[in-house]
Amino acid sequence: MPYLATWVAQSLPRYSYTRAVVPNLASGYRAWRRFAAGLLVAGCVLIVAGSATAKTTYDLRGTWSCCGSGGAAAQTWKIARMNLSSGAFTGSGGGGFYTFPITGKVTGRSVTLTTGPYKQLPSYSATFTGKLSVNGRKISGGWKSNEAQTGTWTASQTSAPKPKHKKPKHKKPKHKKPNPKPKPKPKPKPKPKPSGSSIKLRGPHSNKYHTYFDYVASGVAAGSADHVIGWEAPFAAACASTYRAEATRTGIYLFVSQAVARNHSFSLIVHFYAQNVLKHRFCAYVSNAASSTTFARATATWSNHR
After folding, report:
1. Residues 254, 229: Cα–Cα separation, whole Å
2. What pTM does this model have?
3. Coil, strand, or helix at residue 131?
């Protein structure tokens, strides 16, 4: 390019129409044709150079449904933001009880996507690599985790973001409407109040290593009870008699903290993952969130095996 620009600049005086004498019209015409061709080539080079920063043709923004086979659990990805020039994108996802951030990049039709670190398991993340279909609605490839797990995967786009259209503003005509007298609402019949707070835990006592399982916490929140809270605790020690005492123990992990309606029954599903081959204990309490008073408690134990 520097040589071409120098050649054009040096050629201008030589074939300028302002010369007083043109000794050979034929040779001058041929020189002018060469000069014009040089300008055309320079223009083409400039156009090609200017188009080198074109945007990627694949937009991954939207909702994707992934996995369920190939060793990876079923999960949903929501890609919210994407740079169409660089191909970089971010979003969030989840599967079962777990949620995680998403980062990745598209280069041509090649995709690299990372899930993690997991919010409920910060030490875990997985990387998915694959290739987009021609229509950009499906990706297939392989995955691996930082715990040496590997497998295959396929994801399909289930929804794409709708283009935003500005709605025209319409001024509503001002009309004074008569205010009708409101009809008196019938008084609701009082519901019978439960006699006392209670909580029960139902779930498996033996689980296979690296699988998901659930416990159901159900019972009654009577009087001022309005909160259910529970921790996974070391198996060696029994659950504390109050949730305030349990909260001060070391080695516990919070798995449920849910507000419930007073003087009503409740039923909550608590999700777990068999991360190691050990015995575990779960301690759950019915309490008042403001006064930290404990009204009922329950405990459950299980073991994980290979």
Report:
1. 8
2. 0.40
3. strand
